[in-house]
Amino acid sequence: MCLQTVIILVLGFHTCQLRALLVGSTYNRSIIEHSFTAFVGEHGRNYVIGSPEYELRMALFEARVAQVRLHNSNSQKRWVAATNHFADHTEEELARLHGWRGLHRSDNMQQRSARQNVLLSQSSSVLPEEKIWTDLPIIARESTDQGQCGSCWAVATATVLTAGAQIHGLSHNFSAQDILDCVPNPNHCGGSGGCDGSTVELAMNWIMEFGVKNMVESPYLGSDQTCASSAAKVVSALAAPQSLEDMTKVGFHGPISQQSIGLKLGLRGWEHLPENSYMPLLKAVAMTGPVAVSVSATNGWFMYWQGIFDTCSRDAEINHAVTLIGYGKDAESGDKYWLVKNSWGAAWGEQGNIRLLRSDSDEEHCGTDYNPKEGTGCNGGPPQVRVCGMCGILYDAVVPLFS
Q1: pLDDT at residue 285 in the model
Q2: Chosen domain end from 32, 55, 88
Q3: Do residues 57 and 118 both lie within one domain?
Q4: Do residues 21 and 125 share a domain?
């Protein structure tokens, strides 16, 4: 599919305007104004023509178009950019879509725990060259659009849990909204909870003990709501005997009480995979199912349309939770990739997904997150942490385990 067709699908522009705007040599104010008018109509924006906001949004749109043109002019690029529904967003509005900066652990918390590593104990002498879980109903359906709520952590948790249940023939699905509303975050890890951010680990611990409503009972609204669970349940969670370190250790995490609701839902536990380790993540996706991972959703993520994304810096700032749904090898280029399901709607990327460049080594793409404390609020966090894989995908991964 040619580039001009790409943007037509996204914005509904006229072919000739589009070609001049994004890939041609002509680039003038008139084309920008006509294109922005079409963008406003396509996406139902209510900006008043001539108002300061209208001028601001058009300036942002023009800057994003220029970024797309610059990226697409590189003949060696692995991926193609497009001006999508984020083209008029401010940097602050884009930052809200992250909503999770991960749980950056102190040196003691990063040590391998004594917990059993269930996945590592399983044989993996032969793994398939490609494994994609797009046949699962929760993965095949249109991607959730988290809107202006920093709920990526809740969406990723609900997606991997529902996928795991479907793999095992279980009927229960898991509500991202209920997770968003109910998971307590007393240590302000990844934010202050709800739409302001939290972590998959905290969500898994909560669900293991207290369960979660299904999508019919609690559909996604994209805003903070009152938790439907009893106040006593919330108090019990806050007073749980587990420490923050216990809740986030590498290894298997099972129920801590005989009254575990998670067990009744078929969930026997969850596993926090070893940090920055390639083979455990590959094995988890191949043998168990989709995995919740943390990434650095910067360096062009917002204008990604198709191809294999490879422009994350080695020094990646982890700031977003997504669902790893498979891995494979591009038939044309031969590049290996991770397939990731995002929560920015089906109009973004490859029908809501992104492919990240993959290498068969823990050390191939490693660097440092120099801002691990920003947005986390967790006590005892280190000033910097090591992150590996394209966009830091190997750093922090969680997989549910069903009976």
Answers
A1: 98
A2: 88
A3: no
A4: no
Q: Kindly report the three-state secondary structure assignment for every residue of 295-348.
A: ECCCCCHHHEEEEEECCCCCCCCCCEEEEEEEEEECCCCCCEEEEEECCECCCC
Q: Does 93 map to a domain?
A: no
Same domain, 131 and 177: yes
Q: How many domains is the chain built from?
A: 2
Q: List 251's β-bridge partners, or say none.
A: 272
- What is the CB neighbour count within 10 angstroms for residue 94? 14
What are the b/e assignments for 79-93, b being 16+ CB within 10 Å? bbbbbbbbbbbeeee
- Residues 153 and 22 reside in one and the same domain: no
Do 67 and 168 lie in one domain? The reply is no
Q: Which tens digit of pLDDT belongs to each residue from 217-266? A: 999 999 999 997 755 455 555 555 678 888 888 999 999 888 899 999 99
Q: Each residue of 190-201: pLDDT tens digit?
A: 778 899 989 999
Residue 122's Cβ-count burial label (10 Å; 0-12, 13-18, 19+) is exposed
Domain end among 55, 88, 121: 88
pLDDT over threshold 60, residue 371:
yes
Domain that holds residue 76: 3-88
| 290, 307, 328, 386 from 159: Cα distances, Å | 8, 23, 20, 27
End-to-end alpha carbon distance in the chain: 43
Return the structure tokens found at 42: 């396509």
The closest alpha carbon to 393, from 348, 333, 339, belongs to: 339
Is 202 within a domain?
yes
How far apart CA 108 and CA 380 sit, in angstroms, is 10
Instruction: Say how many C-beta atoms besides its own lie within 10 A of residue 372's C-beta.
Output: 22
> Which of 252-261, 262-271, 373-382 ranks highest by mean pLDDT?
262-271
Which residues have a Cβ under 8 Å from the Cβ of 69 and sit 6 or more positions away? 21, 22, 23, 27
Phi/psi for 369 (5° steps) reads -90, 110
CATH of the domain at 395: 3.90.70.10
Closest Cα to residue 279, out of 135, 117, 152, 163? 117
